[in-house]
Every structure is written in C-alpha cells, then in structure tokens.
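Hello again,

I reread your note about wanting to compare the complex against the isolated chains. To keep things tidy I'm splitting this into two emails, and this first one only covers the full assembly. Below are the input lines as submitted, including protein chains and any nucleic acid or small-molecule components. They are followed by the predicted structure of everything together. The single-chain runs will come separately.
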Amino acid sequence: MADDPNVYSAEDFAAVLRRNGLTVPEDRREIMRDAVGRMQALLKVLDDPLAYEDEPANLPRYDRSLGR
Amino acid sequence: MSAAPLPTLAEAGRRIAAGEVSPVALTEAALARAEALQPRLDAFIEIAAERARTAARRAEREIKGGRRRGPLHGIPYGLKDIYAAAGLRTTAHSRLLLDNVAATDAETTARLEAAGMILIGKLATHEFATGGPAFDLPFPPARNPWNTDHFTGGSSSGSGAAVAAGIVSLAMGSDTGGSIRLPAAYCGTVGLKPTYGRVSRRGVAPLCYSLDTTGPLTWTVEDAALSLQVLAGYDPRDPGSADVPVPNYTAALRDGVKGLRVGYCRAFNEDGEVDAEQAAALDKAAQTLVELGAEVREVSLPPNAQFQACARTISHSESFAIHVKDLQTRPELYARVTRERLMLGAFVSARQYVQAQRLRRILTAKVDALFESCDVLLTAIIPGAAPVLKETDDGPWRRQQPLASVFNVTGHPCIAQPCGFAANGLPLSMQFVARAFDEATLLRACHAYEQAGGWVEQRPALAAI
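Full-complex prediction:
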C-alpha cells in the first residue's frame, strides 16, 4: 500500500520504483524519498472514506448534455 | 512601429477596419519585436516568420477585397508550444519532442486561424507544462519583461512574457494548476482560465486529463473577451468539452459592477502566505470595487489543504499515466525537475485517487454554494511579486501554488489581472472567479476594475525598444 506511512523505507521506496519500471540516480534517491514522504503527509486528508450522502449527485460543468 | 508594444486586439481591429494599419505592417512589427527581444526574454521556441508573412499577405488581400472575417482578422498571436499548428513543431519545450511536427491544427489554433489571426511563433513553456524553470533543456526558460532577472511564472511562461513585452496581444496558455494565471500575474497581464469544458483541448499536449484547461493571456480584459468569443464552444472530439451555449462576451462588458455581489476571500491570503504588499493591494482593490458600487463582503472557502490534496493527487496520478512509458524507457531526455515531479505519481495509490475525485465533488459544491449569495469571488492568486528566476533546487516536492489550483479542482472560470506594483516595480495581481460557464459576468467585473485601477497603462520599460 503506497499510502502506508511506514512503507517508504529505502527498501520499499526502491520496490515502488522497481514495480513501475523507474530508475532514480543514487544521488537523488533520498531527495525523492523525502518528497514522497511530504506528499503523503499532504494527502492524509484523503484518509477518511466518504459516504454516498456526502457527495453531490452531479456537477453541471462535467455534464456534456447540459444545454443541448 | 517596432519601437512600441503592439496595440491591443481591440485597437488593432479598429485600426485595421478603418484602414489605418495593415495586417502586413502589424505582423512585421510583431516579428521585429519578437526578434529584437528574444535574446533578453527567450519567450519563443520558434519564430515562424515566413509562415506569418504569408498569412499576413493573405489577410491583407481578403480585407482589402471586402472579406474581413471579424475583429481579430489580420492580428498576430502566439501559441504556447504545447498547441499543435500544422507544419510547425510542437516540442512542449522538451528534448523528447524535438522532431514532433504537427500534421493538423489544434481545435483552438484552427479557430484562431479561421478568425484570420496570424501565428508568429511557438512560445516557451515549462517542459510538458509542468516541472519548473529548467536549464538542462534544449531551450532556455523565458524571462520576465519587467525585470529579466525574475521568473515569469509558469507554465505558460513565454506567453506571459510575449504579451507583457507587447510582442503579441494574444498568446494562448494552458492551466492545470494555475499555468495561465500565474504567468499572467507575475508578468502583469490578464490571464483567463475558462470553465473546465468551455474551450477545446484537442490538439494540445495533455498533462492532466481532468484538470487541463486552455485559454488566453492578453493585455486587457476586453481582449480576453474578444479571444474567448472565438475560442469558446463545444468540441465533440474533446471528451471534456461541454455543450453549453456561447454568449456574446463583449455585450455586457461595460455594464459596470454597480450592485454586483463580490465575495472577498480575504482569509485565503493566510493559506497562500500572501505578503503584506500583495495583501494591501487586494484590500485596496476590494475598496475600489465598493467605490464602483459593488457589494463586497468577506466569504470563506473550504480549507485549502483539502483543495491541495485533491489537486496534487489528481495531477500526479494523471500526468504519471501520460508519461510513464517515457519515464521508463528514456528518462534521461526529461529535465531533472520534470522527471522527478512526474515520478511522484508512482507513489499515489488508487484509493487516494478515488478519494480525491470524490472530495473534489464536495469542494466544488461548496464553492458553488458561495455563488448563491455572490456573483463573483475575489481572491489572491500569487503570494507576492515574481521571485528571482533560478532552477528549482529543492527537489521535486514544492509548495505548489496553493492559491491557483483551487479553481482547477472545482472547474470554475477565473481571471488573474494586475492590481498594483510591488516596491521593486514588479506587478501584483488578483483573481476574480465566477459561476461555471459565467465568463460574461467574470469579464464584466474584471473590465470594470481594470478601468478604475489604471494599471493597464503601465508597460515594462523594455517594452519601449
């Protein structure tokens, strides 16, 4: 789980890269790993699941049929 | 003519109609200015001089022959180099696309060409409209005409520079997280991000499918209205395009703001770490609107952290999906900052993406609710004047323009426009936001403020070459 706070040990970070077929130069690995950690901290707000009733039924700006 | 900035679209159109200036003369002026300023601004990836001259001669023949197509016929413009223009390269400012010659026009390019406009060149961008100013690319980053040591903002960097320097009066940009409005703000121009779905994206290099928006950077609000009139409309070949009637954007432009209900998102300044000069300029703009007869009251947006979580999750996931193959097979061709930024998408989970899209709907509904008691919102768009231009050296994670991406998440139309100057002479800016597809009211509010603010009269010193 990429959003597990404990997942980004150096080994797990490397595993995500390997799974996605990506390479990061050695001298940029810690910088990238730090960036991932900071990103995950920001995304914590997404941890709580939403109920159906919390979500609006539709959005007019994404409705292609509007105005037809 | 090369000594002065090009006239606005509206003024050029009037002068062409009156026979006071020709498309050929205007085009030559734009080309001369582009060439003269290129060593200082690096605004262009390519200046398409011969193509422009051919188009200008054709426009001149048509107009002289009584076949004037409309108010933009015979006027030069520029394209951010992620827009396709048949026969020209679309490099996206990247080594990966150096030989990518477009076979057909983007829908937006086609619309501008059909209106008789004259493309003079392709403009610098951040690589693939993301990343940041980078010095390890085949083309240098654009520089701010107000002070070339400073950043233009991005990613439509060349578009902001070219319009501010008076090379063209319309340059197309794209906005996924502020990329039209930020260069407009830092370069002191008008930048219009239309409602998501209002303007086609077909033929424009994608960055994030559900956030990308295309729109104009111009010197005046009236020019933004004239541009949108041509650009707006349903495109069945862009799956994000909305089939919504296009009103006359200039008809109500001069109706003023008397009685208009303006929601001033003043607390938002703290979320964006807005500096004292910028905050004071916003307060003064709000006061100006009151003096013009608007009803201004403070309103609050949902917590900025929620918008940022949505914007980052969606943008990293979608841009990674677009670029993963090249990141796997030829990562060395990207600028380092682009490559590392794009790779962050590998670390976003499916659960986070789903939650972000659901939270996005809730946030959009909350912003929609504000428009039950407001006609437009007034917010900050930049924390302060343009910083010094330098390669980002703080790794791939940066605080990513928290003031701008809010309305990419919600899809509402918004405009960045000048609202003063910092002590160092660089522009300050503010943002108006309107209901989805209500660009007409948005433009009306911006035009009224522009007329009262008076900032439009001030050009960068280098504009007088």
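For quick reference: The first helix of chain A runs from residue 10 to 19.

B.
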